[in-house]
Specification:
alpha+beta, four-stranded antiparallel beta sheet, about 40% helix
Length: about 475
């Protein structure tokens, strides 16, 4: 089998002192195979979640909504308030450890299959393939002079890119502004200034990153590409080319005794380069530009099948496996190593602890503020009275009625309002007063405890500290 040699950057003779490689448009070749099917599945799955989630309803409201105006985050049955920012920090820690674990086990698996840059580039490339054709047709179209046909094809492609980009920006805003409000604004063309800005800002960046910059984001802008080697070790699964089997590479006819010619299994067809979204040659070894998408594996396997050679010239393997010729079973055994066990234990512990705290989270927060305008006053009955303002935050989506009790001083009672009704997912303030005998404690501040308990049998009970002043 013979084919054209892979595209390789040519030196710029007009500027031999340049520090930067001249940008080349990468026209990827379509490829099919098991890894390509996984990419298609994950692209569709992630985008079904992204585009579909804002349309889901829960308890007569949007199921997932980060409502900045109301300062509430709705995640199905969970309502988070600004005071719950702790959970955001925990989510970031879980995401970081999850990325460390995946990278230590299988390299840049996230980059190749689930990274937003990869996913949207894949969507844009699908549109490009559909409108302009496969790699040879696109190269021929780009080299042809501008005419009515070329203009029509290019305008169609960019129009579809813009529609997808703006819909992506619209969907993103739908996570922060209720979709029902956005749809009403679409009908009247009356988007708010911030909504308009973010729709066009995010849509514009989607169009720019996935339509034009593509591999440049992965090669020059993504910090993950630069520090990934810190998380790799010789037992990390990476995409590798087997030089012992493949070299010396060269063209040959199908069925020829290529070993007698001193050739290896690599037919030097260049397909592994043509299908690569970053334009690298995996036969040169592991490179930071490789995003682990496995397109080169599928492309090489297709060639091996046509030549009746065994698959796996390019495959997932490890440095140790290549050097020591380990079997698949031995490679799997090396995956379970102290580093992986440590990452897994930490990730599991944090995840389980977070799940436990969320499951046992009390859907009530109370702030107690003592009236500082009057430290204390004596009533007609000779008792000492302090006034307090209690601010109730019901984070549940059910209304609750709470009873207020106090402890800490002998004979102290709630003289003001002792019950309060708090609607679902709202805040309510209540001003009440406490009375105690003059000799109930020492002069000055005395620690007391407010006990707030739900009356509807929901087992909600909290305690808040405060100070009672005695003259």
């Amino acid at each position: 089998m013979s084919a054209s040699a892979p595209d390789k950057p040519q030196p710029d003779n007009g500027d031999s002192g340049s520090l930067y490689e001249k940008h080349r448009t990468i026209h990827t070749r379509a490829v099919s195979g098991r890894f390509a099917n996984w990419r298609i599945f994950l692209v569709l799955f992630t985008q079904l979640i992204f585009y579909g989630t804002p349309w889901l309803m829960w308890n007569d409201r949007q199921a997932v909504l980060f409502h900045l105006v109301e300062r509430k985050f709705y995640i199905f049955g969970l309502v988070l308030w600004p005071q719950d920012v702790f959970y955001l920090a925990i989510l970031l820690i879980i995401s970081a450890y999850g990325l460390f674990l995946v990278t230590a086990v299988a390299g840049r698996l996230f980059c190749g299959y689930a990274c937003p840059q990869t996913v949207y580039t894949e969507l844009f490339v699908w549109i490009e393939h559909w409108v302009e054709g496969d790699r040879p047709a696109r190269i021929k179209l780009d080299k042809s002079p501008l005419n009515a046909r070329k203009l029509r094809i290019k305008v169609t492609k960019h129009a579809l890119w813009l529609v997808l980009s703006l819909f992506t920006g619209f969907t993103l805003v739908g996570y922060f502004t209720p979709m029902s409000e956005l749809l009403a604004e679409v009908h009247s063309f009356a988007f708010g200034p911030w909504e308009t800005f973010w729709i066009f800002f995010y849509g514009g960046f989607t169009y720019l990153m996935a339509g034009y910059m593509r591999e440049q984001v992965c090669k020059y802008m993504c910090p993950y590409a630069r520090f990934q080697s810190v998380m790799f070790d010789p037992d990390t699964l990476i995409i590798t080319y087997d030089p012992e089997r493949g070299e010396s590479r060269g063209t040959r006819k199908k069925g020829a005794d290529y070993k007698a010619q001193g050739l290896g299994d690599c037919v030097d067809c260049g397909i592994c380069v043509q299908v690569c979204p970053t334009g690298i040659d995996i036969r040169d070894g592991l490179q930071y530009e490789c995003i682990g998408c496995s397109a080169c594996i599928d492309g090489c396997d297709e060639v091996m099948d046509k030549m009746n050679y065994p698959r796996g010239l390019i495959r997932y393997s490890t440095e140790n496996a290549m050097a020591q010729h380990l079997s698949k079973k031995e490679i799997l055994g090396h995956v379970v190593r102290p580093r992986i066990l440590l990452y897994t234990a930490i990730l599991a512990a944090i995840t389980l602890a977070t799940a436990w705290f969320i499951a046992h989270r009390i859907p009530l927060k109370v702030d107690v503020i003592r009236d500082r305008g009057a430290l204390a006053r004596e009533t007609d009955m000779g008792l000492i009275e302090n006034t307090f303002t209690l601010r109730f935050m019901n984070t549940d989506e059910q209304p609750h009625r709470y009873r207020i009790k106090v402890t800490g001083l002998e004979g102290m009672t709630v003289a003001g309002a002792a019950e309060v009704e708090v609607p679902a997912a709202t805040t309510t303030s209540l001003t009440t007063s406490l009375q105690a005998p003059p000799d109930a404690g020492k002069k000055g501040s005395n620690p007391i405890m407010f006990e707030i308990e739900a009356e509807d049998g929901s087992d909600i009970r909290i305690h808040e500290k405060a100070v009672f002043m005695l003259p």
